[in-house]
């Protein structure tokens, strides 16, 4: 399952590399777009918790066609 | 050199025997957080909390990390007068299971003084009830409602626990006001609370700072920003408390805060991440290093921080940071903590600096905490550093194997090691695997690990705790397979080894002795040595009484069993009830199967079949029929057989005894166990009309006991052989009241059959006199009219 997750604001390099090493990312219109393969639901919910724990606001989450 | 933790004033009780949990008072989880001087009091929200707990059973405070939930509720809680002060619990990850959760809630209510005297006059709630139902009954008996705050409630995701919490709210008769504080909505059926107007909700939008509140916050931080600036900042941060606080810290170091705001407003970066990096950059190098390195800790002790930084200035730095409310706040004693949101972000920065550093720091912290006697914390960090072999060594060295077997629930350290991956080397890891298997009643795997351990340590230098742990596990295994000899041998080995340890080291683990004596007693009981089993159980109880965390339910239950086999029914009942009560206190929701079996047996003797059925059901709910303890398996079979017989079903009574043929993990029943099942079988055969078989079955088992003599007499009487019945009857003075009553009734029946109604009636009268003190109706019911 490939997902696209959008977070409000531009995330720092440090946060992207170390906080979410499994996702590719780019910044567009004051949003950080993270894209990557999500193994299963446990991974998905774990990822959402990670955003929450780091004080990041998820504004959009969608599954991409494979 | 960092300070040696041995020199530290580690608070009393920390290194004591109660190691199942961190001292809750010390970790500060039972009280509201301290509110810093820079806190902006939020009167509107406080008023909504006050009204909420007045009008509604449930108050929700939900918002993202750093929204200011904890401080809002803490400030409100601390400002309430003494009688209204709420009980407080900061939920931890380990609380996400019914047992631990209800124990923690009771601790919180207890700490707030909300459980005790007011309910004392009320009728005692049913001790066998579920913990939520029991707590509901206790609260319902109060005159005024109690307020309970559960902070960081997002950690409770176990559906059973929330379902029970829902029940508690339903049944507390309006005497409970629950304030749930957390990042996520709880799993309660919120729509029903909303529909019934039973809920007050404070959500992210309510928690967001207004421009006026932002201005006040900045003022408290000594910053002069225009009203317009405050509005802009509020918009950019969306009133997020953590963002505002970080901005205030960052702006304090900027030459012109209006200018700094303009730059911040123009940027698009995520708020916390960006500002935290800014604030961090303005700190002196040693402060930066300290903050990054201590971000891996749940709680920070200055000396521990020194150990992580290799410096000696942590106390000064932490004190300064706490005073200015920068990232760190004071918890309790000499401990500090970082704000959880900032700690998470700092950990990311720490990894970015050096990916291998977190692991090294975890290991350093683990060693420091281990030297400080904080085993649970030490193991947490050892596990985080992936140092499983070290973790297992400390666990064994600390004689903590008992944690796998305590009825109060698996200890924190044992729970950590329960997740040990396969392939960890070393004898201690092997011992942990054996303990894990035996705790799960897997006798075969447990024995295999113990054998492998013995083979691999044969040539190695002596390691007393390791050998002692192994002997302890041999005893557990011996009880499971019903080997009294092996149990005695293992107990002797433990006794020999513990003399080699310093006395206080052994005395720190009273529960190890309790468990040891209890298993030994069970093995002795199984071998038919009732008197020595009884003495061993009394010794176990005496040792448990001296322990900080009493753990008496199992020895009490076994003692009840011994009493029910030898003594007055009333005494057995009292012990069994005490066991049920105590297991509830130690582990709410836990049910000691043996105690319920004894209560079922007592109810049968009293002729109260409904109560007997209920107790038997409680026993089955506590896993009586799945248990691999042979003793329990046999008692379960016997009690079920008697119940079936009293319900007029002798065939079923006989067939359930079949499960006692291969009891639990043991291959065969002991001679003593055969004697018990033979008695039950004989009674069933008499009712089935097969009196010859009823006599024969008794000749197979262990003979000579008064109960066997009585059973033989009854079988003979049923067969019409009056002379043989009289010959078989036991000496009337010898038995417990239940035996004597039955013997008198057999005599009465013999007299009645002889036509001597007068003497028969006198014997019945004597039987009634004997039975009365213990209210034994059972013997009369089974004898018939």
TrEMBL record, chain A:
Q: What is this protein called?
A: Uncharacterized protein
Please tell me the species this chain comes from: Streptomyces tateyamensis
From TrEMBL, chain B:
Disordered as annotated region, ranges: 1-21
SUPFAM superfamilies named among the record's database cross-references = P-loop containing nucleoside triphosphate hydrolases
Q: Which domain of life is it from?
A: Bacteria
Every AAA+ ATPase domain range:
55-206
This one is known as Helix-turn-helix transcriptional regulator
Q: What species is given as this protein's source? A: Streptomyces tateyamensis
